Amino acid sequence: MSQNPNLFLSIGKQIKDEYGRAVGKIASFALTPSGKFDAVFIEQADGKFLKNSVEHLKFDGADATFISKIKSQANIFCDQIPLIWRKDQALKELTEKKKISQELYAELHGNFDGALTQLKSEAQALVEEVNKEIVRCTEETRELNYALVHLEIEHEIGKIDDQYYKTAFAVIQENLRRVNMEKSDLELTRNKLSNMLLGEKAKTAEQEKSKAKEEATKEFTRISTGPELPEPPVVVYVKEIGKAGI
After folding, report:
1. Percentages helix, strand, coil for the chain, rounded to the nearest 5?
2. I want to staple 112 with a disulfide (CB 3.0 to 4.6 A). Which of 14, 22, 88, 117 is the partner?
3. How far apart, in whole angstroms, are the C-alpha atoms of residue 26 and residue 56?
4. By the 8 A CB rule, do 10 and 63 touch?
5. Can you give the pLDDT at residue 246?
């Protein structure tokens, strides 16, 4: 996000999420000592205050849109995990080319491997969080459809006139549109994370397979080029000659 002092013009303005839902009003910003915008304070509809990183906001002039934290985190994981894996592979190739020592390789590889393990664990936890949000969207869609059916019934029997029916129908349809958009985004995010994690598992399995093959080749070479075995001893059979044969 570009650091623009005009962001102060957003104070008091309504902020919405990516699907058009009202999140609240921007009350203030938190800045670092150097003047960089760090966080935003949002007054929610219930009067409570919400603090979020400015990185989760997208600004268009004075208008702000709240970006999903799940999508932001997923993008970070999908960028960082493959990048660290590639760096670790490059480190291995440098070692094989004798450009760095085994000691230095072991240290740096341990750092990369630890970072990958941590990121993969966090990415898997995010997948589980996404699954919960998808279930929530599914349940919300179900409840909205029930609301629509009951609206149709009450309108059909004359309990609700056309004007109120049209207003309520538009509200329900708009919420259905929003929740379906959110669910589709969540499913895309889950697939993106899952494919990335499966790809990393496949790479790890291929590495293990390659390593096992390499070790087997070395062992075969060692055996086939080992020291020559001594010639087998020559056994001479001597027939005992008895007295009668003299």
Report:
1. 65, 15, 20
2. 88
3. 13
4. yes
5. 35
Query: Rounded CA gap, 189 and 71, in Å?
Result: 7
Over pLDDT 90: what percentage of the chain? 58
| pLDDT exceeds cutoff 90 at 1 | no
Report the pLDDT value the prediction gives residue 97, as an integer from 0 to 100: 92
Task: Give the tens place of pLDDT for each residue, 139-160.
Answer: 999 999 999 999 999 999 999 9
Q: Give the Cα separation of 51 and 66 in Å (integer).
A: 12
8 Å CB contact between 26 and 54? no
Q: In sequence order, what are the residues at sequence separation of 6 or more whose Cβ sits closer than 8 angstroms to the Cβ of residue 143?
A: none
Write the CA distances from 65 to 9, 139, 190, 194, 230, integer angstroms.
Answer: 14, 25, 22, 27, 83
Tokens 């799940």 sit on residue? 70
Q: How far apart, in whole angstroms, are the C-alpha atoms of residue 25 and residue 10?
A: 9
Residue carrying the six token digits 């070395």: 218
Distance of CA 196 to the CA centre of its chain: 7
Name the 3-class secondary structure at 153: helix
